[in-house]
Amino acid sequence: MFETTTKAGNKEKDYELLIKQLAALTEGETDEIAILSNASALLNQFLTEVNWVGFYLWRQEELVLGPFQGLPACIRIPYGKGVCGTAVKEGKTQRVADVHQFPGHIACDSASNSEIVVPVFVNGEVYGVLDIDSPITNRFDETDQLYLEKFVNTLEKYL
């Protein structure tokens, strides 16, 4: 487990600044693709030891690939399948220390070893998920989860 998992060094303060940057970037913007694109780029720039950061959007009863940073990814994920589909089904964050131990894990990138997926809701309905993968086992801790959920809560206000 990493003591510091952000590029600047003080995890809590860094996340607070990241959330302020997200709000500043999205204030007044209405295009969802632009908002999600900048959100994924911001997280990719901010986090260390990650190999994929992006969004899957809920479309016609499945998740469909949205804006992301990283290698090409799975395009569609069925409801309840893999870490992303499970996050939608359960309506809560999935923090997986070792994806190879997760039942039904969908291996879009063989280099990924841990993952965190935060569901995104708009007007009480599933909008999609924020998905972050890492080549490091047990990369994401409780602090990451707390602040990534806050990041998503801020993002939801602009979608």
TrEMBL record:
Gene Ontology CC, one term: cytosol
Pfam families found in the cross-reference section: GAF
InterPro entries the record matches: FRMsr_CS, GAF, GAF-like_dom_sf, Phosphatase_reg/MetRdx
Domain GAF: 31-159
Entry keyword set: Kinase, Transferase
A GO molecular-function annotation: L-methionine-(R)-S-oxide reductase activity
Gene3D superfamilies: 3.30.450.40
Recorded family membership: Belongs to the free Met sulfoxide reductase family.
Name of the protein in its database record: Histidine kinase
Organism name: Oceanobacillus zhaokaii
